[in-house]
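New to this. Explain these tokens.
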Amino acid sequence: MTRLMTLLATTAALATPLHAQEITEFRIGLLGGENAQDRMASNECLRAYAEEALGVPTRLFTPADYNGVIQGLLGGSLDMAWLGASAYAAVFVADEDAVEPVLVKTNMDGSYTYHSIGFARADSGITSLDDMQGRSFAFADPNSTSGFLIPNVELPEAGYSMTEGEYFSRIAFSGGHEQSIIGVVNGDFDAGVTWADGQGEWEDGYNSGALRKAADAGIVDMNDIVEIWKSSPIPEGPVVIRKALPDDVKQTMIDLVAAMHETDPECAYGIAAGETSGFTPVTHEEYETIIAIRRAEMN
């Protein structure tokens, strides 16, 4: 028996008829960042494993923006999602009892941080933010940590105003990380920000993140873009589970995702957006700083 078959046998044993009585389906929200079709394809393996382990229909949901996942978790129409730190903060600020963080993506070196990465076309002549005066800048989504929250804090601290027209000629939300990458490559924006672990090689799109996904998909040749800014380390966002779910359902899903890196590396690569060392336990305390930043931005 393979390790994956052993895992499924174990989780199936947990999926007693009690599960069917307490939940009739399981719903996984997929945060924006790439197009809906690719999000579904990358996570279909997770959906299939969860359905077999829980013994109930499991569905993937791909709202158009980050807020769709946030509202789904707050309203109880989603049971699980991998959120960015800012999106988790938004859920927690709105309802502290809605979800609980359970796992975090871990980098190849064992860390669980990543960076907001500023980038521009290699032929643009832009090599740093000092070259961006009077130019357009694309951000992903208002609820994205790396795609807005952290740049909105760190860029002004470094002397670059985030008031449109004062330094950057135009500040726009592209709708997601993939859209920002495409927008810059196509010349719709002079530069943009996205997320990456910052480890490995630039030519590969680093080890994991939106650049790696875009490079793998053939959306961008990394030789055609250059890095112009990198944020300080950001705590990787958590996998969250709806608190109201039965404990055995929650534990089944935690065990399934935590073991995925070993049981099905290809599936783990897809759901983690690249090369990682898997998902490890995390607690709410890791996100208190991001929550404080989020609260401050709301005032």
Observations:
- Residues 113-234 form a domain with the D-Maltodextrin-Binding Protein; domain 2 fold (CATH 3.40.190.10).
- The chain has a mean pLDDT of 91.
- The longest strand covers residues 113-121.
- The two ends are 56 Å apart (CA to CA).
